[in-house]
Amino acid sequence: MSLGNYSPNLVTLIVAGVLVQGYADDNFIEVSQEEDDFTLYKSVDGFVSRAMNADETVILKVSLAQTSLSNDHFAGLRKIDKATGVGAFPVMLKELNGTTIYSSATAMFKKNAGKKFGKNVGAVDWEIILPNALGFTGGNLPLGL
């Protein structure tokens, strides 16, 4: 029997060539596919068919500590894109001790992140759209390999 090994320090996110740092506590990155792979069709007589969806868009939700300088990097990229319309950027998410990887050459921010102020350091939540994403959700390598 093998022992799995996960370390949040080995999850790397590179946005426009810059390593993102200063994540919020708990879940700091969430990956979700925007559309279902298939749409199911059912006829009244029980015949079932499906239509394949070619859309490979992925939404990457990133939670940063409000003190993270990566917030400035994200806000700057968003401002450039909003002002010029040509600010798409490359993104790569890789789990260094696992097989999960996602990337897109033409990522963009969905909208500006909101912000809350309170007694403690809070989180700033960003959503990055990865059109035509290449991705694989995998596991972690066992210890000793």
Set down the secondary structure blueprint.
Elements: E1 11-15, E2 18-19, E3 29-33, E4 38-42, E5 48-52, E6 58-65, H1 70-84, E7 89-95, E8 101-109, E9 123-130, E10 134-136
Antiparallel strand pairs: 1-2, 1-7, 3-6, 4-5, 6-9, 7-8, 8-9, 8-10
Give a quick rundown of the structure:
This protein is mainly β and 145 residues long. 10% of the residues lie in helices and 39% in strands.
CATH class: Mainly Beta
Helices, by number, come to: 1
Helix/strand/pairing category: mainly beta
Strand content: 35-45%
**CATH topology heading:** Pnp Oxidase, Chain A
| Domains, number | 1
Structure description:
By secondary structure, this protein is mainly beta. The chain is built from one helix and ten strands; from the N terminus they run E-E-E-E-E-E-H-E-E-E-E. The protein has one domain (9-38, 48-136): Pnp Oxidase, Chain A (Roll). It has one helix at 70-84, and strands spanning 11-15, 18-19, 29-33, 38-42, 48-52, 58-65, 89-95, 101-109, 123-130, 134-136. The strands form two sheets. Strands 1, 2, 3, 6, 7, 8, 9 and 10 form an eight-stranded antiparallel beta sheet that branches. A two-stranded antiparallel sheet has the order 4-5. A hairpin with a 5-residue loop joins strand 4 (38-42) and strand 5. The longest helix has 15 residues, at 70-84.
What are the defining features of this structure?
two-stranded antiparallel ribbon, single chain, globular, eight-stranded antiparallel beta sheet, Pnp Oxidase, Chain A, mainly beta, 145 residues
